[in-house]
């Protein structure tokens, strides 16, 4: 195998691929690794490339990927085709959507067309939504995600212990956000719809990393897309793209408010929940999994969260708590 460390998983994957590909000659190179235990390899054949997913069964389950790939493809979203599967071993063979990410191609010139395509694909998915097919993005899950902030970002990353009053501020903020989010229109939610998971390809965009999809708030994926942890835009541009999404969603009778200002508030509150979660996830990826590359993305996510808290009086208590944490950060000389 090319460019790969030899281990038991690689040996098993190699043997499985030889069988699936009927002993055709192939070469493997690393395609990518995501924030989980999954790894992806590019399978180079004489006339094409495919993607092999290695998802170790003790840590990962391929079944949701296979099921949701079919669901999203039926909705008109361009996702990888599952060519072969071995759920017991945790191996999938997929069509290859290429290696050109949105993130690598986005700039002031390309962004309008790329975001138009991403919005259009998202709306196709949302139009196909039905309750009872995917897990509900319910209060328990939303709260569990936000709890990553105190557990990993505050306690582990900043080494701060919150007092009772500060903990109450967090719990009240989480409850406030949940009330808004759970009152929004509910649709299929990709749950990580951003520039690293969208591929520039012939049928744009190719969509990856959808295995954690749920049925939840309609603003979630458009927040992931436009308030992306890996690339930032002027607020005027974000609002312009968001208005275009909202107009297209209304034309398709999707459950968005008639008034854009109400939709924008929903978008902001959903964004606050996501940014709270992502700060916790990035801290966990660093401290638990040794993935320090995400540290450099924390300041942008914190910037998004602070901006939202500045705009809404109900979120000012959280802003004051973030100020306190920032001061403690400065006192111990910790900077990103």
Q: What global shape is seen?
A: globular
The helix-strand sequence is: HEEEHEEHHHHHEEEEHHHHH
Percent in strands: 5-15%
CATH architecture of the largest domain: Alpha-Beta Complex
CATH superfamily label of the largest domain? Aminoglycoside phosphotransferase (APH), C-terminal lobe
What is the straight-line distance between the termini?
38 Å
Amount of helix: 40-55%
What is the strand arrangement across the widest sheet?
A: 1-2-3-5-4
Total helical elements: 12
Structure, described:
The strands form 3 sheets. Strands 1-2-3-5-4 form a 5-stranded antiparallel β-sheet, covered by helices on one side. It is globular and about 65 Å long. It is built from 12 helices and 9 strands. By secondary structure, the protein is of the alpha+beta class. Strand 4 and strand 5 form a beta hairpin. The chain has 2 domains: 88 residues, Phosphorylase Kinase, domain 1 (2-Layer Sandwich); 230 residues, Alpha-Beta Complex (Aminoglycoside 3'-phosphotransferase, Chain: A, domain 2).
């Amino acid at each position: 195998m090319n460019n790969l460390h030899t281990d038991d998983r690689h040996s098993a994957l190699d043997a499985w691929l030889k069988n699936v590909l009927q002993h055709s000659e192939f070469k493997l190179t690393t395609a990518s690794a995501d924030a989980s235990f999954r790894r992806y390899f590019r399978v180079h054949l004489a006339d094409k490339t495919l993607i092999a997913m290695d998802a170790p069964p003790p840590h990962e389950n391929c079944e949701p990927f296979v099921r949701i790939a079919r669901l999203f493809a039926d909705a008109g979203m361009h996702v990888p085709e599952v060519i072969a599967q071995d759920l017991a071993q945790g191996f999938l063979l997929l069509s290859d959507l290429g290696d050109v990410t949105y993130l690598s191609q986005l700039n002031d010139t390309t962004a309008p067309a790329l975001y138009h395509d991403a919005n259009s694909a998202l709306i196709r998915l949302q139009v196909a939504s039905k309750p009872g097919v995917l897990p509900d993005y319910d209060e328990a899950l939303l709260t569990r995600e936000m709890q990553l902030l105190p557990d990993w970002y505050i306690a582990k990353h900043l080494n701060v212990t919150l007092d009772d009053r500060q903990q109450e501020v967090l719990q009240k903020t989480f409850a406030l956000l949940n009330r808004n989010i759970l009152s929004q229109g509910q649709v299929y939610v990709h749950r990580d719809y951003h520039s690293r998971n969208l591929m520039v390809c012939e049928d744009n965009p190719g969509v990856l990393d959808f295995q954690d999809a749920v049925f939840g708030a309609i603003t979630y994926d458009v927040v992931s897309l436009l308030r992306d942890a890996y690339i930032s835009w002027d607020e005027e541009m974000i609002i312009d793209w968001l208005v275009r999404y909202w107009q297209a969603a209304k034309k398709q009778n999707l459950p968005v408010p008639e008034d854009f200002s109400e939709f924008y508030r929903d978008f902001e509150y959903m964004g606050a929940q996501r940014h709270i979660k992502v700060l916790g996830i990035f801290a966990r990826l660093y401290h638990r999994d040794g993935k320090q590359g995400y540290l450099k993305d924390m300041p942008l996510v914190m910037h998004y969260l602070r901006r939202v808290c500045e705009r809404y009086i109900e979120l000012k208590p959280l802003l004051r708590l973030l100020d306190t944490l920032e001061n403690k950060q400065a006192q111990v000389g910790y900077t990103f």
